[in-house]
């Protein structure tokens, strides 16, 4: 497993951002695990997470999976601190990248509108979000960026849950669907497959491994779908 993958999963477990139990997802599915990026709730935790994103992007760029981008966009809400922390990480690595994000409810006074930060017009935008399940949040972000005159260079997320959008019809995940439909690279720091490897190797997570496997058997995507 790539260093940034296992480092991210360990950080997420330590921050209790990765939890096991019974959780209702935005899609309505009941999941035995949940990734809550909001638990990266201190400067040190966010800096560690941002380092994992930056390393995953660098690995994808080296592999030729992702091209040039010149703005980071974080979809509300959890994408906002993630894109901001990643911009700070890039600054630490010597690159000053513009950053922008949206409001879920447009503001009617002051500067108004629903976009905050650097203008998107004419920019090659990298979307920075936490997790992809059914792809609803990512599709919304694609629409926002298009409307604002930006072009999307790719999407980076912390965790690809690798779930089939509609398992009764196909085993294609939301990440695969977005990649095919929009021709965009989707880079994940880690995926359900990585979590399964970790859970399979860890005596602490032995009890979770079976439940994760059962969930994947029911909803999991297939790499060649
Ligand atoms: O792929 P999807 O099925 O859309 O699910 C994943 C999205 O769901 C959550 O966002 P949510 O809209 O709950 O908002 P939040 O960032 O405000 O928590 C999460 O932060 C992802 O963005
Ligand atoms: O599908 C979701 O709604 C979802 C899954 C997950 O692991 N984390 C999250 O914030 N949302």
UniProtKB/TrEMBL annotation:
<feature type="binding site" description="in other chain">
    <location>
        <position position="26"/>
    </location>
    <ligand>
        <name>5-phospho-alpha-D-ribose 1-diphosphate</name>
    </ligand>
</feature>
<feature type="binding site">
    <location>
        <position position="107"/>
    </location>
    <ligand>
        <name>5-phospho-alpha-D-ribose 1-diphosphate</name>
    </ligand>
</feature>
<feature type="binding site" description="in other chain">
    <location>
        <position position="104"/>
    </location>
    <ligand>
        <name>5-phospho-alpha-D-ribose 1-diphosphate</name>
    </ligand>
</feature>
<dbReference type="GO" id="GO:0005737">
    <property type="term" value="C:cytoplasm"/>
</dbReference>
<comment type="function">
    <text>Catalyzes the transfer of a ribosyl phosphate group from 5-phosphoribose 1-diphosphate to orotate, leading to the formation of orotidine monophosphate (OMP).</text>
</comment>
<feature type="binding site">
    <location>
        <position position="109"/>
    </location>
    <ligand>
        <name>5-phospho-alpha-D-ribose 1-diphosphate</name>
    </ligand>
</feature>
<feature type="binding site">
    <location>
        <position position="161"/>
    </location>
    <ligand>
        <name>orotate</name>
    </ligand>
</feature>
<keyword id="KW-0808">Transferase</keyword>
<dbReference type="GO" id="GO:0044205">
    <property type="term" value="P:'de novo' UMP biosynthetic process"/>
</dbReference>
<keyword id="KW-0665">Pyrimidine biosynthesis</keyword>
<dbReference type="InterPro" id="IPR029057">
    <property type="entry name" value="PRTase-like"/>
</dbReference>
<feature type="binding site">
    <location>
        <begin position="34"/>
        <end position="35"/>
    </location>
    <ligand>
        <name>orotate</name>
    </ligand>
</feature>
<feature type="binding site">
    <location>
        <position position="103"/>
    </location>
    <ligand>
        <name>5-phospho-alpha-D-ribose 1-diphosphate</name>
    </ligand>
</feature>
<dbReference type="GO" id="GO:0004588">
    <property type="term" value="F:orotate phosphoribosyltransferase activity"/>
</dbReference>
<dbReference type="GO" id="GO:0006207">
    <property type="term" value="P:'de novo' pyrimidine nucleobase biosynthetic process"/>
</dbReference>
<feature type="binding site" description="in other chain">
    <location>
        <begin position="129"/>
        <end position="137"/>
    </location>
    <ligand>
        <name>5-phospho-alpha-D-ribose 1-diphosphate</name>
    </ligand>
</feature>
<protein>
    <recommendedName>
        <fullName>Orotate phosphoribosyltransferase</fullName>
        <ecNumber>2.4.2.10</ecNumber>
    </recommendedName>
</protein>
<comment type="subunit">
    <text>Homodimer.</text>
</comment>
<comment type="similarity">
    <text>Belongs to the purine/pyrimidine phosphoribosyltransferase family. PyrE subfamily.</text>
</comment>
<keyword id="KW-0328">Glycosyltransferase</keyword>
<feature type="binding site">
    <location>
        <position position="133"/>
    </location>
    <ligand>
        <name>orotate</name>
    </ligand>
</feature>
<dbReference type="InterPro" id="IPR004467">
    <property type="entry name" value="Or_phspho_trans_dom"/>
</dbReference>
<dbReference type="Pfam" id="PF00156">
    <property type="entry name" value="Pribosyltran"/>
</dbReference>
<keyword id="KW-0460">Magnesium</keyword>
<dbReference type="GO" id="GO:0046132">
    <property type="term" value="P:pyrimidine ribonucleoside biosynthetic process"/>
</dbReference>
<feature type="domain" description="Phosphoribosyltransferase">
    <location>
        <begin position="68"/>
        <end position="169"/>
    </location>
</feature>
<dbReference type="GO" id="GO:0000287">
    <property type="term" value="F:magnesium ion binding"/>
</dbReference>
<dbReference type="InterPro" id="IPR000836">
    <property type="entry name" value="PRTase_dom"/>
</dbReference>
<comment type="pathway">
    <text>Pyrimidine metabolism; UMP biosynthesis via de novo pathway; UMP from orotate: step 1/2.</text>
</comment>
<dbReference type="InterPro" id="IPR023031">
    <property type="entry name" value="OPRT"/>
</dbReference>
<feature type="binding site" description="in other chain">
    <location>
        <begin position="77"/>
        <end position="78"/>
    </location>
    <ligand>
        <name>5-phospho-alpha-D-ribose 1-diphosphate</name>
    </ligand>
</feature>
